[in-house]
């Protein structure tokens, strides 16, 4: 079964095209197929001007069936493929096969080209080890202006290339998804999936600082699709949330969302500090200072009372 089957069961008169489903909006009841479901982006939208309903599929199921979040998740769980990244028909690309002609830094032979030397120098200055460069398959390419772009490939749980991050030597970066939404992706999933306790952090350099059990959520919030993928991991995993110090509110939102279903702890960093800044002590901080949400508030209450 797939997510498409859910909509076919509930809306038998839907029209199916290559990348979307269309049917009459169940909320505004406007005549005509104004309601679209985008399977690849896990979102829905009504094009009728007086409605303009636009939410994720998870939120749609909550509204349509009158369910809370946990009930909607269990409903979606009946359609197992909804927890796998939407598949576009393309072969499993490697970095060197893609039209960008990326070069893997771990496969370059000495003497290194200048662009490769600059990429390796930048990464080692950021304390990325040669072992990590090889394990995470980091690469580089030259853009049309001859500027070096360091490439951080993003793989799904089946080890298929789904996107990549390009970062200049000055720190400007951009995500390039292969036909899917950025909100479906994690950096380092192909490696972190092997650990019982997974540390959720923001970006690639945070992953390198924390270790192989770290998973980059590529931002400060967790999308519905990312949330569903984490809950679908078998066996059940435990999670520790370690976002940048300026994202404490976002960290608590993730904790509250996940703690209903899994054992979750959080490590609160000081403002303007991220895991990559304290890489020498971040692992001991995670072990010694991460707390469950109950322990965190218990300490706050004690401090307040004293």
Give an overview of the whole structure.
- Helices cover 32% and strands 19% of the residues.
- The longest helix is centred in the C-terminal third of the chain and has 13 residues, at 293-305.
- Strand 8 and strand 9 form a beta hairpin.
- The chain has 11 helices and 14 strands.
- The model is unreliable at 84-100 (pLDDT under 50).
- Strands 1-2-3-4-5 form a 5-stranded antiparallel beta sheet.
- It has helices at residues 3-10, 57-65, 69-77, 114-125, 130-135, 189-192, 204-210, 224-232, 248-258, 279-289, 293-305; strands at residues 15-16, 21-23, 35-38, 43-46, 54-56, 103-104, 139-142, 148-155, 161-168, 173-177, 197-201, 214-216, 238-241, 264-266.
- The chain is globular and about 65 Å long.
- With 306 residues, it is of the alpha+beta class.
- It has 3 domains: 3-83, Zinc finger, CHC2-typedomain (DNA Primase, Chain A, Alpha-Beta Complex), CATH 3.90.580.10; 90-179, Alpha-Beta Complex (DNA primase DNAg catalytic core, N-terminal domain); 186-306, Dna Topoisomerase Vi A Subunit, Chain: A, domain 2 (3-Layer(aba) Sandwich).
- Helix 2 (57-65) crosses helix 3 (69-77).
